[in-house]
Amino acid sequence: xxxxxxxxxxxxxxxxxxxxxxxxxxxxxxxxxxxxxxKFQKAPAIGAIFDTATNDPxxxxxxxxxxxxxxxxEITFFPAVLEDGSKAVAFEAKGAGFGGDVGxxxxxxxxxxxxxxxxxxxxxxxxxxxxxxxxxxxYVSQFTGMGFDATFKLKNNGGDIDALSGATVTSKGxxxxxxxxxxxxxxxxxxxxxxxx
Amino acid sequence: xxxxxxxxxxxxxxTEIAPFRIVLGLCPILAVTNTVENGIGMGLATTFVLxxxxxxxxxxxxxxxxxxxxxxxxVIIATFVTIVExxxxxxxxxxxxxxxxxxxLIVVNCIVLGRAEAFASKNAPHLSIAxxxxxxxxxxxxxxxxxxxxEIFGTGAITFxxxxxxxxxxxxxxxxxxxxxxxxxxxxxxxLCIMNLIPKK
Amino acid sequence: xxxxxxxxxxHAPFWHDGDSICKMNLHIxxxxxxxxxxxxVQFGMPALGVILLAVSSSMFFELIMNFATKxxxxxxxxxxxxxxxxxxxxxxxxxxWWVVVIGAFVAIVIGKQIYGGIGANPFNPVLVxxxxxxxxxxxxxxxxxxxxxxQFDFKALAPxxxxxxxxxxxxxxxxxxxxxxxxxxxTIGTNFGLGLILGGIFLIIKGYIRWEITIxxxxxxxxxxxxxxxxxxxxxxxxxxxxxxxxxxxGAIFLATENSSSPVNLIPMLIYGFLGGLMxxxxxxxxxxxxxxxxxxxxxxxxNPLIDxxxxxxxxxxxxxx
Lengths: 197, 201, 322
Known about the structure:
The structure holds 3 protein chains of 3 kinds. Helix content of chain B is 66%, strand content 4%. By secondary structure, chain B is mainly alpha-helical.
């Protein structure tokens, strides 16, 4: 019986202490982590997409809750006012690639509903093969100017997206992400306009 | 005393070098060694966990009842793994993105639990730190070697902080197989074979 | 009393008629000759170079491994030469020399010798070599690009790649007759359907390859392709096109039948061959690669030890420790 109590005691103390340490660490790093996520994942993509923005899209970001496949998620939108005065918004969607999710940040002109630019944000694809979708900006430049009447599927599946040779699975992930962007945008556009007033 | 610390430290570097001699920790060595940067990052994260978990396991070794020692070890290890994960997220975010799921998986890395069970639970804290450090550095070294072989042949260059050091001329055509998953198995097999050709001492 | 001596004889995959390995390999090489000679005539000297380099470097690596593992020299059984020849036949004529040498190294060292040499390899060494090259340098296996400088008097498109990229309408470029006669863009030794079939019949008559595997493999191709074709002829090509294009016939005759990586009993052989054909068509129709033969046969090599457990019951009373 004594042994039993000791076991319970020791285990409880260890887990309690480690739980305490972790919660302290979690709260103290939370802010830092969020800024890192913004800095390394979103900022380069946003900067490349809205290179003529007259405002700070990162600072003015807002979130809209929605449902994707019955899961409640929040999507962060980055609004921008471009040099020529037109309003635009950028947000990210994901599609499954070869090594994991491929994130695609897409900037959309709110008036013409056309894609301004797209950039790959995160991926865990094979270096030198799938990773080219991010490193090689000419690949995602094919999205520039596309409207949402386009079919976001690879060409050999009857869509409008070119595959990157040798990286078909990754390209498919990108096209799935783009299709997701289309779906979300068409669904959430009223809310986006509402928020940006 | 000083001598035995040195002994515990050096055994992890060669005679018991983790992946090659005692063939432990193969999951990360196969999964993250496609670039040297990933390999070394993973190795250092594991070393951190090893040193601290060894130290704390050894510190509490007399108060942990034998029957619940494995859960206790795992809790201690998991705590440090989570710490590493949070710290990496906060300070080395790009590396965290690449290693991704493999950081939490350090918890189930055989080397960490293996050292806690086989060494730290039986030896004094200073020896356990030496052991953890030696094992960790040996593991980092193995990851670095394997990932160097794979990255050099697979891409023709070694990339640190986005700046590639190109080792072969433009006429080199990357042996892509090496950076793919099956390449890891073949490469590890060949390295193990070479290690077995070299006598232990 | 009756426990003293128990001679338990396993059921029979015994099969010997006084042949030697050397003789068998020479016969298989002979059977491959029509296709090889056709390839050399069609693609000229570079094809001959690739074949010779593949054979000689395979034998060279075999020798090196003999010395490294301190075994008696085994190049005399021509197994390495045969692997080299089959491997060379699967390459386009324009393959650079270093690709050939690396492939031969992989085939002989990683595919065969590491497992213990002849008869011990779980996978077909030729395919191990080809698969690794295909994954690493897909550009050199793209017959369209590789053979750009050749002038042909027939449609200069690799049939399977055309099918993959342009859809079923592409098969109109390739009448079955020209495919059988080897008038297609492709690798050195796998185009000439007629030659391969002749070689295959020769080997089957001589008993060097098992007809069960070849026939069931071809049946697998035809049946699966037919099912796809019947379900949607607009997106899947018919069985004859699949049978005579790419590596199909070569795989059925020379690759799937490789001795140590294929089963020995009747039912397993039929399953093995049929699954091979099925996988080829599945990869071609649904997968990412234009031709699935290489990966399909590696996959059936993988299940070979498992399906070989399906075997006839031994005669007489069952003995537990048999």
